[in-house]
Amino acid sequence: STCRIYCSDAKRYLRKCWKELRVGDVVHLSCNEAVPADLLLLNSSDPHGICYLDSCNLDGETNLKQRQSVRGLGMDDRFDVSKLDCLVEISPPTTKIYHFLGSIPVSGSTPSRRIPLNENNLLLRSCFIKNTDYVEGLVVYAGHETKVMLNNSGPRYKMSLLERYMNTAVIWCVGILLIMCLLSATGAGLWQSFYEQRGATSVIPFLPPLPAATELLSSSTRGGGASNQPPTPAVQRLYNSPAWVAFLAFWTFVIIYQTIIPIALYV
């Protein structure tokens, strides 16, 4: 989309894309034209400075809203954008559509005077100019700082009370699972340590040898020899190590106890 933006070098309005708008630019809009940014209404074709807006795309209301141009700039008789030179102080960008505060300090006035600004002087982006031949406005919020963009955050995910309770329960189940696995693995390591302290020097007779031990034995006898050789002392120490047994037992108990987590509720 394009709009007419005042160019100080050419001293006339030039048609440019919306993405080229910057805060401080002066925009000229005609009737039935969309507002490209949040504008401060400076001038209107209406003798009283009134402008009408169609905000159906913004709030769904079909009735036209009336806006008033800023008064007191010293150009009430005939607005000349080339002579516009002022400082505008406004509130930070906010999601509140009908909230806008600001002021324009009047230079050379004694005592110092300020022109107040409110939401009645603001043309919001995505609205359409209606029943007005033309308007001229100053860009105060552009791009993602406009009110319509700040409110366009997408649909919010609504979490039910049951989902919150279920998430809390699953977290507790995971914590209980880890504690049970840790206690069981610690018990397995202590049991292995107790067995070693009783003087056992060979593989526990009622436990099958590890695949790693079998591979080491087969590699050591690959050149020929008895296939039923007893495990080497290095393999015995690895297999009978309490830390190694506790490590394997922890993941074993994770698989055994994982059924306490109700994963089926999420699938």
Automatic annotation (TrEMBL):
Keywords, alphabetical: Membrane, Transmembrane, Transmembrane helix
TM ranges are 169-191, 243-266
From what superkingdom does this record's organism come?
A: Eukaryota
Which Gene3D superfamilies does the record match to this protein?
A: Calcium-transporting ATPase, cytoplasmic transduction domain A
Q: Is the keyword Cell cycle assigned to this protein?
A: no
List GO molecular-function terms, semicolon-separated. Answer: ATPase-coupled intramembrane lipid transporter activity
One GO biological-process annotation of the entry reads:
phospholipid translocation
Offer a single GO CC term for the protein.
plasma membrane
Using the record, list the residue span of the signal peptide; answer none if the entry has no such feature. none
Stated name of the protein:
Phospholipid-transporting ATPase VD
Source organism of the structure: Hirondellea gigas
